[in-house]
Specification:
By secondary structure, this protein is an alpha+beta fold. It is built from nine helices and 21 strands.
């Protein structure tokens, strides 16, 4: 696989769902923010609606005219047709024209995410429109090619994390400041260094580079500018999109300078929770994400911290799928069994909005023989060069 080579979309889930629902075609309408639409088209289109149609075992992309050449270049399906750029409803009308080329279409499937106006216009064209959410399962199980894409992204993510760790390790203390390259080190400076690694490798941060310091570590998606103070936690959560369009996810937490007792204790508890979650996934085939979450939560609670809807402790889920989106099924909040071919995170954390926070996160592949951890980066509360 060459860098940036994208896997072929899996249309088998569409075929299976059409048979199950006794339907004749599948229509998906959305914009570039719709990752399910990207999965089926590999077309990173505009922030205006376009359509994907699957009928008679033929995949068609209805792209805005100004993006026609890009669509032809990116779409691996059978045909690309043009829609009018200025007319919002033209995506639905173009989809209807594609459907009318087939004389046997009366019942069509659409995703739950389809815009209300598009649903209405398809009904106005005298089709029976049935909403389904089952086709999202196409992204739950990863092909060999998709796994290689994620592995490629994770190599880039770990390179960026090593760079960030090295910066923290090379920084010096000056009073209450951490100095790197003759200037105070802040979360924004560190974020820019991380994102530069992504860009150089052909990836994109996609707005998912979280760098918190001290109390801002308790903000799960902090993207502001904060001073990095010696002795406080620095939480780095990276979710880049790689050259092939697949995401990765990794989190590490460091303490530059002297490590104090609260930070050391929390780090050890989170490490224990992560180890317990990974061991359970490796040793218990078919376990549910919910059971893994409960195991992780029980370790945290046994060490005196709270979980759930709390102000201090673990107040988020501890795992989710990763693929063409940073967060996609399966989720650890669900009781469905985790199965071979799924790629999921394991990410326990403990947070105190007055002290800081610690999260550790690995990304693993479920296999028939246990798990494969995509992350080889060691765990260390003290940053290493």
């Amino acid at each position: 696989m060459s860098r940036g080579e994208q896997p072929t979309p899996n249309y088998q889930y569409i075929i299976s769902e059409l048979e199950k629902q006794n339907a004749d075609a599948y229509v998906h309408i959305g914009d570039k923010a719709d990752q399910m639409l990207w999965y089926f088209t590999r077309f990173y289109g505009p922030d205006r609606d376009y359509a994907f149609v699957y009928v008679d075992e033929r995949a068609t992309l209805c792209a805005p005219a100004l993006f026609y050449e890009q669509a032809k270049r990116e779409f691996p399906g059978a045909e690309v047709t043009k829609t009018q750029n200025s007319n919002r409803s033209s995506a639905a009308m173009r989809a209807v024209n594609v459907l009318r080329d087939s004389s046997s279409v009366s019942r069509i499937l659409v995703p739950a995410s389809i815009p209300h106006w598009a649903h209405f216009e398809l009904e106005q064209a005298d089709y029976e429109v049935v909403t389904t959410d089952s086709i999202r399962n196409a992204r739950v199980y990863k092909s060999t090619h998709e796994i290689e894409c994620i592995r490629e992204t994770m190599a880039i993510a770990q390179e960026a994390m090593r760079h960030a760790e090295s910066i923290l390790a090379a920084s010096t203390t000056a009073g209450n400041e951490l100095i790197w390259n003759s200037a105070p080190l802040t979360t924004e400076r560190l974020r820019r260094e991380i994102n530069a690694v992504f860009a150089k490798a052909g990836g994109n941060d996609f707005g998912n580079t979280v760098v918190g310091a001290g109390v801002s570590c308790a903000d799960l998606h902090f993207n502001g500018d904060d001073d990095i103070v010696p002795g406080e936690t620095v939480l780095i959560d990276l979710g880049p999109r790689g050259p092939s369009g697949y995401f990765g996810d990794i989190t590490r937490t460091f303490v530059p300078g002297k490590v104090h007792s609260w930070e050391q204790n929390v780090y050890e508890v989170v490490s224990e929770a992560l180890e317990a979650g990974l061991k359970q996934l490796n040793d218990v085939p078919g376990i549910s994400g919910g059971d893994v979450h409960e195991t992780i939560a029980s370790v945290i609670e046994a060490n005196g911290f709270e979980t759930g809807d709390v102000d201090v402790g673990l107040y988020h889920g501890t795992g989710h799928g990763v693929g063409t989106s940073l967060h996609e099924p399966p989720f650890f909040s669900e009781r469905t069994e985790l199965e071979s071919g799924q790629v999921i995170t394991v990410e326990p954390g403990i947070y105190d909005p007055y002290r800081g926070g610690v999260r550790l996160e690995d990304l693993v592949l479920i296999t028939d023989d246990g798990i494969e951890n995509f992350v080889t980066l060691p765990y260390s509360i003290e940053p290493q060069e």
